[in-house]
Specification:
Order of helices and strands: HHHHHHHHHHHHH
Number of helices: 13
Distance between the termini: 31 Å
Shape: globular
Radius of gyration: 21 Å
Number of domains: 1
């Protein structure tokens, strides 16, 4: 093991234990254990099942995008790679790790590698766009309620502006021929820009022709599937709150605003507990108990980890085959 890798892992472990210690010190071990022991595990199991369903839908969505990018592999192979990628997402705690695995696992040549990267980027972007849409709708509801109750709403206005910018910014760039052409010109004029050709080729694969029939159908299906996926992911967090007895329908809109913010934190790999601690603080700004919100997010993370364990089993099975001399997924067209 390289020294820097060992030190990085030790640092992550230290941060994890520090955050866990802080939560226990702040909330009290008796209260934490009582909260967990009295949790309704029926909701936890239901949440794990819904998360697994969302992963299967995610694999279907990625499969459709890969087909649109002329990468033809069986759905069984797509499902296996996607589940393993989700396993890496939850255990390394960052979407970059899982997405990198998905691209690498396809074993494609240089040309198709760019297309697979673009497909994975579109798959990830679709999720963020739907989450942004949820955040906008939830933010508008909170904004209206705050006006009716004569409360301050500067913070929610900032959140709304942020997600509106994300939603329309990415959506327009992906679909606008004019902006795509301007971006091409800008990249072309950048002197000495490293990896310029790779970036240009990847962007060409990522851009969507909204007038093309295949791209329009792909966009339609990806939008519908992603809507279901992200709804299920938010419901998993709601079920974690329900299991702990802290969910009420009057607070529903806050989950559709805060969970997208927390989801953005997962882009960067971070130690276990950091996302949950930051998310708990964000819930605290909305009037929730910070400690209870942290425990809820910890429970939601554990539910996702349990749901992705099937990917871990698949990964270990593939690793065993490699150690035995078998070639795993050597031919993407067959998935064998």
């Amino acid at each position: 093991m390289k020294k820097d890798t060992m030190y990085t892992r030790l640092l992550k472990l230290f941060i994890t234990f520090a955050i866990m210690g802080w939560v226990i010190y702040s909330y009290g071990w008796d209260d934490i254990s009582r909260t967990i022991i009295h949790a309704n595990y029926g909701w936890v199991i239901f949440g794990v099942i819904l998360f697994v369903i969302s992963v299967i839908l995610g694999a279907w969505q990625w499969h459709l995008i890969l087909e649109n990018k002329r990468i033809d592999i069986p759905f069984g192979a797509t499902l296996r790679i996607y589940f393993i990628g989700m396993f890496f997402n939850n255990f390394i705690l960052g979407t970059i790790a899982g997405d990198a695995f998905k691209v690498a696992a396809l074993h494609l040549d240089k040309k198709n590698g760019k297309a697979s990267f673009a497909a994975t980027f579109i798959d990830r972007l679709a999720g963020f766009l739907i989450l942004s849409l949820f955040a906008i709708v939830g933010g508008v509801i909170i904004f209206i309620v705050n006006i009716q109750q004569n409360k301050q709403f500067y913070m929610i206005m900032g959140v709304l502006a942020f997600f509106v910018a994300i939603f329309f910014g990415f959506f327009i760039v992906l679909l606008s021929r004019t902006l795509q052409d301007k971006l091409r010109v800008i990249l072309q004029k950048l002197p000495g820009f490293p990896f310029k050709e790779i970036v240009q080729n990847t962007l060409e694969e990522t851009f969507i022709n909204r007038r093309g029939r295949d791209d329009k159908m792909m966009l339609l299906w990806v939008g519908i599937i992603s809507l279901f996926i992200q709804t299920l992911r938010i419901i998993v967090n709601i079920l974690a709150a329900q299991a702990l007895g802290m969910f009420t329908f009057s607070t529903l809109q806050y989950y559709f605003v805060i969970i997208p913010i927390v989801s953005l934190l997962v882009i960067v790999p971070m130690p276990f507990g950091v996302r949950e601690a930051m998310g708990g603080m964000i819930f605290g700004l909305a009037g929730f108990s910070i400690e209870q919100s942290m425990i809820m997010l910890f429970l939601a993370t554990i539910m996702c980890v349990l749901g992705s364990l099937v990917g871990g089993i698949m990964f270990l099975t593939d690793k065993k085959k490699r150690e035995d001399g078998a070639v795993v997924n050597s031919d993407p067209s067959t998935g064998e």
